[in-house]
Specification:
Mean pLDDT: 97
Number of helices: 11
Largest sheet: 7 strands, mixed
Number of strands: 15
CATH architecture of the largest domain: Alpha-Beta Complex
Distance between the termini: 12 Å
Shape: globular
CATH class of the largest domain: Alpha Beta
Low-confidence stretches: none
Structural class: alpha/beta
CATH superfamily of the largest domain: Medium-chain alcohol dehydrogenases, catalytic domain
Bound molecules: NADP nicotinamide-adenine-dinucleotide phosphate
Number of domains: 2
Strand content: 25-35%
Amino acid sequence: MKLFELQAFGIEHLKRAERPAPEPDADEVMIRIRAVSLNYRDLLLVQGKYNPRLNFPRVPVSDGAGEVVAIGEKVTAWNIGDRVVIPFMPAWLDGELSAAKASSALGGDVDGLLQEFVVIRADALLPLPPPFSFEQAAALPCAAVTAWNGLFVSGNLQPGQTLLLQGTGGVSLFGLQFAKIAGATIILTSSSDAKLERVRAMGAHHTINYRTEPDWEKRVLEITQGRGVDLTLEVGGVGTLAKTLKATAYAGHISLIGVLTGISGELQIGHILHKALTVRGIYVGSRAMFAAMNAAITQHNLEPVIDRVFSFDETLDAFRHLESAQHFGKIVIRFN
Ligand SMILES: NC(=O)c1ccc[n+]([C@@H]2O[C@H](COP(=O)([O-])OP(=O)(O)OC[C@H]3O[C@@H](n4cnc5c(N)ncnc54)[C@H](OP(=O)(O)O)[C@@H]3O)[C@@H](O)[C@H]2O)c1
């Protein structure tokens, strides 16, 4: 089977290779991957910033969808030809996260989905939300489930509450779509006025350009009449968290998700204490969260925002496009 494997750090070391196709164990399913989508994590991994001690070669990419082509002898839930989407952590079915569940994250310490065939435990898989294409379903596992968890599971977002979203990457755009169906007021920041126009068309109520308005937390306070937001999906990391703390209301919640501006730095914790804030880390989510999210997607006819679809042969271009941060929504790679 054909695949791309990372042989050293750097996009240029992502090399086309061939390996024998894997075979399913008794409780596994073999899937022919039809589409994958890229996340910022995939770029960090390729650049050597996610796991500097990575063992090479490694097949990257966590998110994908495909069709069942073989089933283990104990599997009854799936049939050959079924269209499935693969959760980010196949071992996290439900309940709280644990080390064992986290270690199953695809495209990190174990090989990911940038290969023609994979075997996955059968109880992890989910059907495609009807009437999704493989490309649309491949957009969901990491960014969408993370947004869902950050908003509704960890963040407990309620109708009428105010939400802050940062940038127009995958997590934030899913966050916008989900928060709209939940009836929240949405404030969204971006470096681009053109992108801000697009999110207003999608229903964002207030927008701020964080390049031209670097003190964006003051604008958030103005918009909320000094109160601050109830919830933030914090994807910026060390460069934005201090401002987010200022922009958050008393007893507000911050779902700590991303590291776009870096992972470590100095932090004043005063706002967390004095405003009794909850800051909770998010690591994607479980299969149960994914299933609940898919039900809402179907109910509300939501569709992922797909920036561009690349072919398998254009995989390196897809990674370079992600690196450029020009995208609006998900970057997808379609397998032939
Ligand atoms: N913890 C988890 O489970 C989890 C899951 C998914 C993602 N993440 C993390 O969440 C972050 C976002 O991931 P993603 O896949 O959505 O990324 P992405 O699609 O690559 O999004 C990139 C976008 O983020 C925005 N951005 C960059 N710097 C920013 C800043 N200083 N302030 C506000 N926005 C900024 C930019 O939007 P504009 O062009 O509009 O400015 C950029 O286009 C990454 O750090 C990723 O590693 C974590």
